[in-house]
Amino acid sequence: MKKGLLVLSLLMTQIIDAQNHSQPKDHTTTLQEVIASPHIKADRIFDFSTKVEIIPQSPGDKIYYMTMDANDVNKKKKFIVYKKPFTISRTTRIQAYTERKREKSSIAIANFNRRPNYWEVTTLSKVDPQYEATGKLALIDGIRGDIDWKKGDWQGYLGHNFEAVIDFQSPLQITQISSTYLQDNKAHILMPKKVEYYASMNAKDFILLNTIDNDIDPKDEKIQTKDFTTEILPTEARYLKVKAYYFGKLPGWHQKTGGETYIFVDEISVQ
């Protein structure tokens, strides 16, 4: 009798185990739907005004946005509903997010800059197509590149000097000149050996104003920028020439000995 009960007990255990294994386990987890941030579209650099359009990644998503310009520094602003494209006429930062079924996306941020001047610039050196930034106006657009050069704010010149002429459109009195360069020696980007500044009234006859020598060690592996700035006696000029001398081929201490080096230049400014 005991043997029969034991056999029956084992049989029932096998049946229960079989039922448990035959029923699919509930692996369902509640995942919060990821809402994509909207795309903010406008001219990054503009002359007088530019139209701003904010586009959701998924049609039907509701968009909220907020603008901030120089006049809003002391204002308390809130996000408002985006209904249609609008126009800005000042350097402006725009923030926007989308909302769907009460779920919000992360905030997208974009900066749009009104040109600080209406100068023209002519580059006399060939820029590397990989590192053109936003074009030749990137050199005088008021937007300074930072050490994250992969964002694309710098112009790169490989294996030769950098040279450019700025036309102020009318004579200016200059007392200070500056241009900014970057070094990342692991990426073959080194400071120029020196930078020269020249002035002219006719774009033909240039007078050397000053020479700034580099004082950053090319072996320094820190990614860094340097302003080659000079103070000069008040000088009237319509044209300014900037010439930066490239370092030369990579020296023996570099693992890529003999390779060409870059000059990375961004903002040229005068006061």
Structure overview:
- The model is unreliable at 1-16 and 18-31 (pLDDT under 50).
- A hairpin with a 6-residue loop joins strand 13 (194-200) and strand 14 (207-213).
- This protein starts with a helix and ends with a strand.
- The protein is globular and about 60 Å long.
- The longest helix is centred in the N-terminal third of the chain and has 21 residues, at 2-22.
- It is mainly beta and 271 residues long.
- Strands 10, 11, 12, 13, 14, 15 and 16 form a seven-stranded antiparallel beta sheet that branches. Strands 2, 4, 5, 7, 8 and 9 form a six-stranded mixed beta sheet that branches. Strands 1-3-6 form a three-stranded antiparallel beta sheet, with no helix packed on it.
- The protein folds into two domains: 39-114, Immunoglobulins (Immunoglobulin-like, Sandwich), CATH 2.60.40.10; 120-270, Jelly Rolls, CATH 2.60.120.
- Helices cover 8% and strands 43% of the residues.
- It contains one helix and 16 strands.
